[in-house]
Design goal:
Rossmann fold, alpha/beta, 429 residues, Helicase, Ruva Protein, domain 3, two-stranded parallel sheet
Length: 429
């Protein structure tokens, strides 16, 4: 009977997917998240004083793995629930078991709840007393922003740990480890694969270790010689449409920005689509859109920056595929808006002066008049408060003497900036 059970367990192990077999067993094997692993969390794990946590990150970044490592390292009773499939009764059953573990074996229980954002308010509230009194150490995992999806009462009792997307180097390290590991990986198969092909798998996985190992396992099941042709045959058009390390990557980014700047919304949308289909990080795309709104539209239409920033936040919140919609809204608005780089030119010119010239001192009348000793040095004396004057404006000197009459901001006559220009010209007279 014992021999039969051992054989059955070995078969189960062999039948597990590669991604599951290669799941790290300890912190030494864990790849990525260096800031997290080397910081306070590692000290707490090693000391066995782990608080309740919520791991927030994209799929394949190691949320479940890290929870299991914590339970193993701290010798805790590990229980797992999926919020989409579990309810209050499941939680209470685990609490009952946790009480027995603590009473009879002096073991703490770690309850890992995957997709915790799927629990409703009532289900989350059930956890509160057990987390608060220590009967359960909760580790939640979510791909959604916990500040939006988790009750404030529960958030106040946990620490949020942000897990970042794995780098391509991280993913390549995981792939190479799987290729040489004879016990859990593919080491006994003697797989032949070159670095370029590994690069393509890592690039395609886009920071998701599970996707990378699934591709590797699928390819290895059909051949010992994994090549680019193997991947192309297996993945079809999805592979190599947009290589994030090639010149094509930089050309696409350049064309995207220049299309927005050049007021061609159709071209801008095309390059946005190309980046999305190619797996570009939506946060990278959003940053380019925000920068373009400030640099190339500026005060000609201040709403461009507001919309770009809102789109960036919404895109991060909802993720793909829905993120394409707010990004497209911002891109088409910016491309269609009147353009001005006057603010961009103004700050660069001012920075150059500050770095390269003796610009003099702040005029005495606009220096801080509130600190101790300011009165003795006459700081703030004769300052004219603009709101005390007609139209809330009064002529007085703001630039240092050495920079007097310097003009940095020269608004255009396009869009909203035309009104700003007219107002400034009136005031400057």
């Amino acid at each position: 009977m014992n021999l039969f059970e051992t054989s059955e367990n070995e078969n189960i192990k062999l039948n597990k997917p590669l991604a599951e077999r290669m799941r790290p067993q300890n912190l030494t094997e864990f790849v990525g998240q260096k800031d997290v692993i080397k910081g306070y969390l590692r000290k707490m794990i090693e000391a066995g004083t782990v608080p309740s946590l919520i791991f927030y990150g994209l799929p394949g970044t190691g949320k479940t793995t890290l929870a299991k490592i914590i339970a193993h390292t701290t010798k805790s009773n590990f229980k797992k629930l999926n919020a989409a499939l579990s309810g209050i009764a499941d939680i209470r059953n685990i609490v009952k078991e946790a009480e027995e573990q603590r009473r009879f074996f002096q073991r703490q229980t770690i309850l890992f709840i995957d997709e915790i954002h799927r629990f409703n308010k009532g289900q989350q509230d059930v956890l509160l007393p057990y987390v608060e009194d220590g009967r359960l150490i909760l580790i939640g995992a979510t791909t959604e922003n916990p500040f939006f999806e988790v009750n404030p009462a529960l958030l106040s009792r946990v620490r949020i740990v942000k897990l970042n997307r794995l780098t391509d180097d991280d993913v390549k390290k995981i792939i190479k480890t799987a290729l040489i590991d004879k016990e859990r990986g593919l080491g006994e198969k003697s797989i032949n694969i070159d670095d370029d092909t590994i690069d393509i798998i890592a690039d395609f996985a886009n920071g998701d270790a599970r996707i990378a190992l699934n591709i590797l396992e699928q390819a290895a099941s059909s051949t010992q010689n994994i090549t680019v042709d193997t991947l192309t045959e297996m993945l079809g058009e999805r592979i190599q449409r947009y290589d994030k390390k090639s010149d094509n990557h930089y050309d696409t980014i350049s064309a995207f920005i220049k299309s927005m700047r050049g007021s061609d919304p159709d071209a801008a949308i095309f390059y946005l689509a190309k980046m999305i289909v190619g797996g570009e990080d939506i946060n990278f795309i959003a940053r380019r859109i925000v920068i373009c709104a400030a640099e190339d539209v500026g005060n000609a239409d201040p709403m461009a920056l507001v919309l770009a920033n809102a789109a960036a936040q919404v895109a991060q919140f909802v993720g793909l595929p829905e993120a394409r919609i707010p990004l497209a809204q911002a891109v088409t608005y910016i491309a269609s808006a009147p353009k001005s780089n006057a603010a961009y030119l103004a700050i660069d010119a001012a920075i150059s002066d500050v770095q390269n010239k003796d610009c003099g001192e702040v005029p005495i009348h606009i220096r801080d008049a509130h600190y101790k000793g300011a009165k003795y040095f006459h700081h703030g004396e004769n300052y004219k408060y603009p709101h005390d004057f007609e139209n809330h404006f009064v002529h007085q000197q703001y630039l240092p003497d050495k920079m007097l009459n310097t003009k940095y901001y020269n608004p255009t006559e396009l869009g909203n900036e035309k009104r700003l220009k007219e107002n400034l010209e009136k005031l400057r007279k």
